[in-house]
Amino acid sequence: MKRDGKGGSRGNNSSGVDFATLIGLVIAFGGILGGLVLEGGKVADVTQITAAMIVIGGTVGAVMVTTPLPILLAAVKKSTRVLWDSTARAEPIIEQLLRYAKEARKGGLISLESELDRIADPFLRKGLTLAVDGADLEDVRRILEAEIAMAEERGEAEAKVFEAAGGYSPTIGIIGAVLGLIQVMKHLEDIEKVGHGIAVAFVATVYGVALANLVLLPIGSKLKSRLQQSLRLKELTLEGLMCIAEGMNPNVMRSKLEAYANDAGGKRKPGVAKVASIPNSRVA
To answer: pTM of the prediction?
Structure first.
């Protein structure tokens, strides 16, 4: 967690390249092309500009027809998260919340007002602002849970763009293969052209299936994974804010939040912030 000279938080993100994604892509494409070469084929055998145009153009067009443009643009922007992991980490968030809890126990919630402008996370800043302004705790919880639910809905919609594209791509590949076979049928008098034409025609099918299973569907799954990480951190932040507002003992609060953060296997209910069951405590 980075802090400025006054102790304020400037962000809890630990950004970095997602090497698992990069290595996975290299292994996937390397294995397929390597197998082709070992079978006596050539990379040039599956290099067809027209097939790529049909598959990519057809898939993009189908997705644009089925997806509202704002969601489509947001999904394309979010696709960078596949190669670059900017998801925040739980530990610095917990430490930040504990620091606020200690300050609030010493000087009251109003003492945190000076921290608000230095909080980088909009969700945390919004929740803490509501608490400092004296909003009812149940209202604060409902507002933040609604924000979590909306974030989940947006994230799911963006991931479904790539899932939809992964569904269209193989079918468009088959269309490309059929179009290629139509051209082959025009030259039945030349058996050599027929054989070559059939081979070229099926490249579109390869493109469609490969694009779906090696790129589009994995992107959708990775975006969902990133979304779940982000939502769980928002829920952890929400629980921390409730602890701060209720004046919970920081030691008890730490145990509660760490248990919450370590509950990686817990299932979330869509759109609902999961509440940890550890009772609150005001014991110093």
So the answer is: 0.78
